Every structure is written in structure tokens, then in C-alpha cells.
Amino acid sequence: MKHVDVNRFKIKPKQRIRLSDLDTADTAPFASDDGAKKILQKLSKRLFDLTEVLYAQDRYSLLLVFQAMDAAGKDSAIKHVMRGVDPKATQVYSFKAPSHEELDHDFMWRCLKALPERGRIGIFNRSYYEEVLVVRVHPELLLRQPIPEKLVSPRIWDERFEDIRNIEQYLCRNGTVIRKFYLNVSKAEQRRRFLARLDDPAKNWKFSLNDVDERLRWKEYMQAYEEAIRATTSSDAPWYVIPADHKWFTRIAIAEVIIETLESLDLHFPRIDSRKRRELNLARRRLRA
Ligand code: ATP
Ligand code: MG
To answer: Minimal CA–CA distance to 37: which of 253, 252, 255, 258?
Structure first.
């Protein structure tokens, strides 16, 4: 049974979006968080069962990309949604500002190295999308990338969108299923969460003055996100814009998308052929003897 109709968060190919027009506090069909924990537990259980089959079948891999403004709840959503899943079937990568070694390669290099193996779920906490988001909002970061000068033109963002689309399509054709999440938090809710980080000693470490500076560029970020989402959403690798003002709802919605995705694949345990069956029977006889 579906608890949330997540189709309304899915961005269709070429769909233009205005993030500020979307309801960041949407929790429909729930009026409150009553029972939210129970629902998430149920979804985790279902997710566990599905990932067991994904792992055993060893054909598909699932790549989940998480992007958001600071304090939108990426970390906690990843933690809560994946809590029940067998650790052997998941891997999480957090992408920070690129290192010297990483800058010495093309921008996809570090992400390609981190792709999930077949049978596993790979989670990207930030990703190659930073290259058309933070790098776009801060052109000085682009200048720091040692790309040959004549290859850097005003067309670079469209070129990167095209490259991202192509790489995602290539991955899909090889059995990597991709789902991308933008956690849509409001500017006001971000402010509340920043203040909470300042007031709570246990959360102080999460705070960086830089986060407040980035807040000043909110509008530019929203524009960069809107363009990136529109240019790279596809039926194979769709973006989902998930309301993120209520963390409990964000988690349920994300879990639903992942479950729906896994259910849409032809997942099944490896079939036992007659040779394998003979082997199992032989093992049983020997153990009993
Ligand atoms: P937290 O919730 O703990 O703040 P975070 O994902 O924001 O998690 P940080 O270490 O605070 O982690 O930030 C990582 C920083 O790295 C972000 O500001 C992000 O924009 C930046 N970053 C990631 N990828 C790139 C990139 N390719 N080029 C430049 N900056 C990048
Ligand atoms: Mg941060």
C-alpha cells in the first residue's frame, strides 16, 4: 500500500519548475506526524526485503543522488531511510570540495570511481551536480579548475548538462538505475535550523560561517537548481523535488520513491537450475550421513 503519492514530486522530461512556487511544507495526505515513525519502520522493512533480492540477483545497481541547500536534511534523510537496510548492500559517498588530485581529472572522475557495484545501492551525498550548482554560482571555482582555457566558454553549463545526460543514459543502459532527489527546504526553515545548530552545543560542529554566506546567494542557487533539474531530468534518471520543511515527511517520501523504483524492476532471487538442485541434494545427503 502506498502511503504517499510520490508521483507529484517527479519532474517530467523538459518540465520547467519554479522552486519558490512549490510547497516546501507539503505533507499530504498526512495532517501531522502522528504515526510517521511506524510508517517509516514499515517502509524500512519493505526496503530491506527488496534490497535482499537486489543483492542476491546481482544484476542492477541503484544510484541515489541527493542534492540540497545546507540544513535541508540530506544527512538525516539518508541515515533514517537506509537505517534498516543491510550494510553490505549499500555504500554512501559524501562529496566535498574537490581535492588537488580530483581537480587534476575531469569532473566526473571521482564520482565514477564511487559508483555502486551490481546488487547494491550507492548513495551520493552531493555529486557531480555540484559542478553545475556551486561552481556555477561561484565562477571563481571554475577558474581554479585547470581545464584548457579554450574549452571554457559561456556554453560550458549547457555542455555539462549534455555530458551529465549522456553519462546517466550510459549508466542506465548498463543496469544502473538512477533516481535524483532535491530536498526543497524554505529559506525560513533553513534559518530556523541554522539557529538551532547555534543554540545546541551538540550541533555546533555542523555550523560553518560559510553556510550563512551561501544563504545570501539563495536566489542564484535556486536558479541554478531550476536549470539543472530541467536540463537533466529524464524518464530513466528523473529528479524528484521533495518538500523538506518537515523532516519526517521527507523521509517517508524518499523511502516510497526508492521502494517504487525497486518494485518496478524485474527483481527475483537467482533461479536454481537442475544442476544446482542436484548439488543441494547431494549436500543434504552428505550432511545427514
Ligand atoms: P553538512 O550537512 O555537514 O554541512 P555538507 O554536504 O554541506 O554537509 P560540507 O563539508 O559542509 O558538507 O560541505 C561540502 C562543500 O563542498 C559544499 O559547500 C559543497 O558545495 C562543496 N562542494 C562539493 N562538490 C564540489 C565541487 N565539485 N566543487 C566545489 N565545491 C564542491
Ligand atoms: Mg555544509
So the answer is: 252
